Amino acid sequence: xxxxxxxxxxxxxxxxxxxxxxxxxxxxxxxxxxxxxxxxxxxxxxxxxxxxxxxxxxxxxxxxxxxxxxxxxxxxxxxxxxxxxxxxxxxxxxxxxxxxxxxxxxxxxxxxxxxxxxxxxxxxxxxxxxxxxxxxxxxxxxxxxxxxxxxxxxxxxxxxxxxxxxxxxxxxxxxxxxxxxxxxxxxxxxxxxxxxxxxxxxxxxxxxxxxxxxxxxxxxxxxxxxxxxxxxxxxxxxxxxxxxxxxxxxxxxxxxxxxxxxxxxxxxxxxxxxxxxxxxxxxxxxxxxxxxxxxxxxxxxxxxxxxxxxxxxxxxxxxxxx
Length: 322
Prior knowledge:
By secondary structure, the protein is an alpha+beta fold. It has helices at residues 2-34, 37-62, 83-102, 132-136, 196-200, 224-256, 290-294, 299-310; strands at 72-78, 106-114, 120-128, 141-148, 157-168, 183-188, 204-209, 214-218, 266-271, 277-280, 286-287.
């Protein structure tokens, strides 16, 4: 149902855009035929607005990855540098929660480790909203801040780093389908205590999952049917646990491969002094209004990064993407 709702919304947006385009072009043709300059200006303005909306829909269509529609976990970790880096991590935390608020997303704090004097050492939030992961995944990497430190009595310029990691929220309510050809079922007489009937009939059940070699057995009941049912439940639990372990190992390997939180690994620089500039080092997109960016104006940076991943897009000043 969620997938159907998403597709219905996308198609409705496209059809509405198409209808408005037809209306605007019809109006323009009429205005030109009558040489009505005010009507021509109105039609031109309408077409310009439609162009902006079409670009937005184009970006939304890029969010078609397997987990793009999911909610997201966002982790922030301060780099080396003590109080200054802790304060920078807190600024990033505020930036992303403000971004989520502007988009109508909900954010929930899951974990926070405060710095000794100010800021935070780390924090994890869950951002809930349609395509939250699709947008936020572009923010994974190291973020660099250059400013006059408010914590330095000599008012010197400091460079601080913090890392951002984004992961999709996965629905772990799984139904495990086990084909009959992948299992071998053996029945045998139970051993040990259990009474004469249990020991004299083949009520015990062993199920072996051939692809993985995982085997479970149950002999707690005198009914083979009940033992079989319990063994199936045990096997599903074992396979589920094995899948979770694989996920954790993959995540650990990914974390081990992450770059250091420092020079040469940043994706974006935020310079507050001696000049003001935010620059994405992957796409070249810039903003000369860093306070707006720190207040959550991140969409142009995310849009450029998405366009680049899909197949390249224009990069440059933020105004090019607004």
